[in-house]
Amino acid sequence: MSAQATAVGQPSTSAKKTRKRILTGDRPTGERHLGHYVGSLANRVKLQEEYETFLLVADYHMLTTRLQGLEEIERNIRQTVLGNLAVGVDPSKTTIYLQSLVPEVTELFLYFAMIVTVPRAQRIPTLKEQMRDLDIAQPSYGLLGYPVLQAADILMVKGDLVPVGRDQQSHVEITREIAREFNDRFGPVFPVPDALIPEIGILPGTDGRIKMGNSLGNVVNLLDDSKTVEAKVMAMYTDPTRIRATDPGRVEGNPVFMYHDFFNPDTAEVADLKDRYRKGSVGDVEVKRKLATAINGFLDPIRDRADRLLRENPRIVDEVLHQGTARARAEAKQTLHELRAAMHLDYFGQ
Ligand code: ATP
Ligand code: MG
Question: Is 285 in the same domain as 319?
Answer without folding.
Answer: no
